[in-house]
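Shipment paperwork, digital attachment
Item: protein structure file
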Amino acid sequence: MASLTARQRAALPDRAFAYIDSEGKRRLPINDAAHVRAALSRFSQVHFEDEAARDRARIRLLRAAQKHGVVPIGFISAQLQPQRKFPTGHVTFLLTDLEGSTELLARLEDRYAKLLDAVRKEMRKAIKRAGGREVDCRADELFAVFEQPPAALDAALAIQRAMRDGAWPGESEVRARVALHSGRPTLTETGYVGLAVHAAARFCYAAHGGQIVLSASTEAGLRDALSDGVKLKSLGSWRFQGLRDAEELFEVHVSDLGKKFPPPRAAEPG
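Attachment content:
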């Protein structure tokens, strides 16, 4: 646990604390990465004078986490906008990232930022239309949450079609990896936490550009809710780093999107 002597604490400016109450008592030091981690772990134990004070402290803490490169297990952006409400209970995550983003950056150079902005715009449009909520967006990754699997699948299909049809800078081909996973994470002061978060990230990394993969838990929620022309194909069971049990993955087949992909990446047959 990070600690400060009384002299060290007194020498810190007010901005080095996430919360200062009405009596001037300074709480939750955020002067370096170690103290940011400690503040994140203790945030829910602090008694705040009111909800406005809690929100101000939360924003200061999460901004400090970004500054010092501390990423809580979960998603940061959600907590930087406390007015947004995210679903709890059994939810479905949608995660995307871009295949070959480093090569795109090297080729496009200054134009890469324009491409990334355009890609995010299309992804956000698809998520919003399907009733999902963006949780976080970092670099070429985007995270969203849905209350039901069918809506998440609708967004995933719309994203892949937008990537295929987009007029991207430099006539680039943009290929997104998309993964869906359903589970019952916990929504805390610092975002979604739980095994479902880690599993969703693993499944996204395992996918290939242009592919939509989904977990068995998401497939179970889609069996009686597939639109005409949409089929799910089992990819078998796979083992992923950090996950105790093998996980069966499925891929989405529709006539207007690609069907042939290599086996999942960074996984061993289960």
